[in-house]
Design a protein that fits this description.
Blueprint: E1 3-7, H1 11-23, E2 27-32, H2 40-57, E3 61-63, H3 69-76, H4 83-101, E4 106-109, H5 119-133, H6 146-155, H7 167-174
Parallel strand pairs: 1-2, 1-4, 2-3
Helix pairs in contact: 1-6, 4-5
């Protein structure tokens, strides 16, 4: 394997995985998928931080077109308690399809950097999507670099978000009352 497409949720979460992958002599290109990030101003902040970071480290990034928040919300309507499963599947499938189109050897995600994400779920979805699309999913547990990535992002003065990305994770981060859809204010901690 030589060429890997890496789904990047945000610049701070990319720091450690990119360093690690490059140390393995992999050619890595990034892919930013915006459709789950709410509100749009938050999506723009994350995109701008990634653009800044990618210029600093000479990383080519493919930026997903548009902002289909409506499609994202329609797909999770009445399945709010399973929203993370859908969101991971949506992002990983989009990354795998882009990897196939670009003739990458594999694809992966910076979601594997967060100690707040469900790694078993991400790995299962990634491997399933990879088998379906025909591009292998590259799994590596990047959580050992959690503190290193945080410290580096602070030194670089990169924008650091305080919630996962979707409207529900924003609500769960800031709204401290019980919610009706099965979520809780601790359901989706920030990464």
């Amino acid at each position: 394997m030589k060429k890997l497409l890496l789904h990047i949720c945000c610049a701070p979460c990319a720091i450690y995985p990119l360093r690690t992958l490059r140390e393995k002599n992999l050619t890595v290109m990034g892919f930013f998928y915006p459709h789950n990030i709410h509100p749009y101003t938050e999506c723009l902040k994350r995109k701008e931080a990634l653009q800044t970071y990618s210029e600093m480290i000479d990383l080519k990034v493919i930026y997903g077109h548009g902002y289909d928040l409506t499609g994202f919300l329609r797909n999770i309507a009445f399945r709010e308690t399973q929203r993370c499963r859908f969101c991971c599947h949506d992002r990983l499938r989009s990354t795998a399809l882009m990897a196939r189109r670009g003739k990458f050897d594999a694809f992966s995600t910076t979601l594997l950097y967060s100690k707040h994400q469900n790694h078993d779920l991400i790995r299962t979805i990634g491997e399933s999507v990879g088998a379906d699309v025909g591009v292998p999913f590259y799994y590596q547990d990047f959580r050992s670099g959690w503190k290193e990535g945080i410290e580096a992002s602070k030194r670089m003065a990169l924008y650091r978000q305080s919630y996962c990305g979707c409207v529900f994770s924003e609500r769960d981060r800031y709204y401290k009352e019980p919610v009706q859809d099965g979520g809780s204010h601790n359901a989706l901690p920030r990464h």
